[in-house]
Amino acid sequence: MDREERLRRALRDHIDATGTSASAWCRRAGLSSDWLAAFLRNNSHDIGSTRLIALADAAGVSIDTLLNRDAYDRMSAIAAAAPVLEHRGVTATLGEIARETQIPIRDLIGQFENRDNLLVEAWLHLVRESAIPAMRAVNGECLTSRMDAYAGTVIGWMMPRLPFYIAFRAAITKGTHAQRESYRQVQQVIADAITDRVLRPSRELLPLDEETLRRTALVIYRELASVLVSCGLDEDEEFLVQDFLKSARAILSGKTLRP
């Protein structure tokens, strides 16, 4: 949702919550109601800070309250910022995130201090909520088909978010101990998903103990991450899948039964 549509929604929400009408609200604010009606119907893009201030004064609330921009909790801020970071990655500043989400920058600074902290938390949240469930749905008839499904799922999920991921990789190197520990835990959950959905069900693998399975899964995850970091934003997904599968076969060399 862009800034203009969020503004329309906030104004409509206020009208619905107070039971007033657009024309009555504008009369109290000393404004013509025509422009507000046109704006709410999406027939006009003409909205300015002076008019918003007048509407807020007439409603007896602050601009932040009128626009639903009172202090955001941490998770709400992460959820609102994630789409901006997905599309912008390294180019998104904290000020731009504040403008596009309509979260006051003081709230973002109060919660995260800087953009990199927000970026790290937003990426890890996105992986937990979206990427890992997708990995856990991977299936196949044999080791090759499972690995192919895993690669296709992860690469298909990652490519539209590659600028975000690259920005995350840069930010986590400067992250706090707690952030790096959260990242390590996420990596382990991913390795567990690879173990459970790709490696353990595969009869082609030699009998391996749990620790070896998990170490192998972690190497597979890191190899795919390396393939993604080294590729271009317009790289062909199928080429990346095949590139990764060659590496995966090398990683599993000596761990599979001979045909």
Describe the structure in your own words.
With 259 residues, this protein is mainly alpha-helical. It has 2 domains: 3-66, lambda repressor-like DNA-binding domains (434 Repressor (Amino-terminal Domain), Orthogonal Bundle), CATH 1.10.260.40; 116-251, Tetracycline Repressor, domain 2 (Orthogonal Bundle), CATH 1.10.357. It has helices at residues 3-18, 22-29, 33-40, 49-59, 63-66, 74-88, 94-101, 105-112, 115-135, 143-158, 162-172, 177-199, 210-230, 237-251. Helix 2 (22-29) packs across helix 3 (33-40). The N and C termini lie far apart (53 Å). One of its GO terms (molecular function) is DNA binding.
What structural class should be given to the helix and strand makeup? mainly alpha
**Cα gyration radius (Å):** 24 Å
Number of helices: 14
Number of domains: 2
In CATH terms, what is the architecture of the largest domain?
Answer: Orthogonal Bundle
SSE series:
HHHHHHHHHHHHHH
CATH fold label of the largest domain: Tetracycline Repressor, domain 2
Helicity range of the residues? over 70%
Let me know the average pLDDT: 86
Main beta-sheet annotation:
none
Count of individual beta strands: 0
Observed structural traits:
259 residues, 434 Repressor (Amino-terminal Domain), Tetracycline Repressor, domain 2, 2 domains, 0% strand, DNA binding, Homeodomain-like_sf, Lambda_DNA-bd_dom_sf
Compact overview of the structure:
This protein is mainly α.
Mind sketching the topology for me?
Layout: H1 3-18, H2 22-29, H3 33-40, H4 49-59, H5 63-66, H6 74-88, H7 94-101, H8 105-112, H9 115-135, H10 143-158, H11 162-172, H12 177-199, H13 210-230, H14 237-251
